[in-house]
Amino acid sequence: MPRGSTIIAIHPGALGDCILFGRLLWHLNAAVTLVAGGAKGRLLTGMGAVDRALDFDALPMHEVFSDTPLLVVDTSDIDVVSSDEDFLDLSRNILKHRGGVQFYKPLGR
Predict the structure, then answer these.
(1) Do 52 and 81 fall into the same domain?
(2) Measured between alpha carbons, how far is 31 from 6 in angstroms, rounded to an integer?
(3) Does residue 17 share a domain with residue 41?
(4) 71 with 104: CB under 8 angstroms?
């Protein structure tokens, strides 16, 4: 990880897993903001594993599971910068999405 990078890490899991996750984050050599349960975030901040913690329970996570539109796009096989066809295909899918969570994987070429 390049020096000066910023990472947002999300961990909604149990304490033991979060401590192990903290060990990984500590080695990243980056500014890390952790989103986790309140006590877990405070613990990893106090240990110096992360720079900052946000309480997972205080965030509006319910919006992810509501009718708020969320389009998750697999961009591994497209290039919307260089390919007009990819750009137009993605644009059409964004415009037709009306609500809820939808996963979109463009067809390979």
Answers:
(1) no
(2) 5
(3) yes
(4) yes
Query: What is the tally of structural domains in the chain?
Result: 2
Predicted pLDDT at 4? 65
Contact 97, 67 (CB under 8 A): no
| pLDDT single digits (tens) 58-78 | 877 666 666 667 788 888 888
Alpha-carbon distance of 6 to 24, in angstroms, equals 15
Q: What is the CA radius of gyration of the chain?
A: 18
Residue 1 lies in a domain: no
Judged by DSSP in three states, 70 sits in: strand
Domain range for 89: 65-104
Strand, helix or coil for residue 102: strand
> How would residue 45 be classed by pLDDT, with cut points 50, 70 and 90?
very high
In the predicted model, is pLDDT for residue 16 greater than 80?
yes
- How far is it between the farthest Cα atoms of the chain? 49
